[in-house]
Amino acid sequence: MATKFLTEEGRKRLVSELEQLKTVERPGIIQRIHEAKEFGEMSEGNESDEVRNEQAFIEGRILMLERLLKDAVVISEHSSDTVSIGATVQTKSDDGEHEYTIVGTDEIDLANGKISNESPLGQALVGRKVGEEVTVTTPGGAFSHEILRII
Fold first, then answer.
1. pLDDT in the model for residue 44
2. Does the structural domain 88-150 have CATH classification 3.30.70.360?
3. Is the pTM higher than 0.90?
4. Is 105 within 8 Å of 119 (Cβ atoms)?
């Protein structure tokens, strides 16, 4: 199994999600099943299938989060000299300046500039220093980024 990385912020978010699933979502679905059984609604209907599917999803997500949190390597600090997981990188390319935060694959959020260390750009940036230029080849073409700052 490949090593999974999490930033400290990502770990906290996943711990919070796990807590929500265990203390709110799971008891809620158990209550819905109990009530449906009491009223004889747990027959072969769409509602009962929906409730069972929701329960299966919640239990699967709980197992996945527990495994991820147990096995992941948490990155709580990073160097400002070299791009690494957890670092925010300001770059300049032909289409302007950009800011990316390098995160593990379970924290990707492109709308907020969080890119995976395993993405083509993430791989190109990790290990590089301010002033270096990286070229990334994607299906849309090759793009160059100059590293302006590492935060």
1. 55
2. no
3. no
4. no
